[in-house]
User: Which sequence fits this backbone?
């Protein structure tokens, strides 16, 4: 996937350096910042960009209604972190992240990052079951395969969980 402004590849970049707009197109943050200095609209579809938390949340919810995978993932993050005035909810975060992942293209940076985040939610938050641990391992593996730096580091370090009998089991 390439930046829609400079046309350079975005694969392997941390999510902090990449962003998506209303139309789902992706850009390097640096390119987008430069574009927004001239006009506060999406460079491709020309829709006005949100300038407040309330506008951002309305913007994302509108795209959830339109079944945009990246919007499901983003609203999941809003619920997970309590952003935009939303009440923190692990259950809603998990549901929205799962839906975004199921609708999205596996190679899209936001979908791959959502897999990494959802793996952490399934593995460490809420009711932890063997089924959730297995799902978390699969998601983390897929995120690492897609080049999500956080997931790659976890696999490289091979973190383990030690059971009461002393058995070591990889966390992911």
Assistant:
């Amino acid at each position: 996937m390439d930046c829609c402004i400079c046309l350079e590849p975005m694969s392997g970049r941390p999510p902090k350096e990449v962003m998506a707009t209303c139309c789902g197109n992706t850009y390097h943050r640096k390119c987008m910042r430069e574009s927004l200095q001239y006009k506060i609209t999406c460079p491709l579809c020309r829709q006005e960009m949100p300038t407040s938390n309330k506008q951002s949340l309305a913007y994302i919810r509108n795209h959830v209604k339109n079944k945009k995978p990246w919007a499901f993932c983003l609203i999941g993050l809003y619920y997970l972190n309590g952003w935009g005035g939303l009440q923190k909810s692990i259950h809603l975060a998990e549901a929205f992240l799962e839906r975004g992942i199921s609708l999205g293209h596996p190679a899209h940076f936001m979908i791959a990052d959502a897999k990494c985040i959802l793996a952490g939610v399934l593995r460490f938050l809420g009711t932890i079951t063997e089924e959730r641990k297995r799902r978390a391992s699969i998601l983390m593996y897929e995120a690492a395969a897609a080049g999500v730096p956080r997931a790659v580091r976890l696999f490289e370090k091979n973190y383990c969980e030690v059971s009461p009998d002393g058995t070591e089991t990889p966390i992911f």
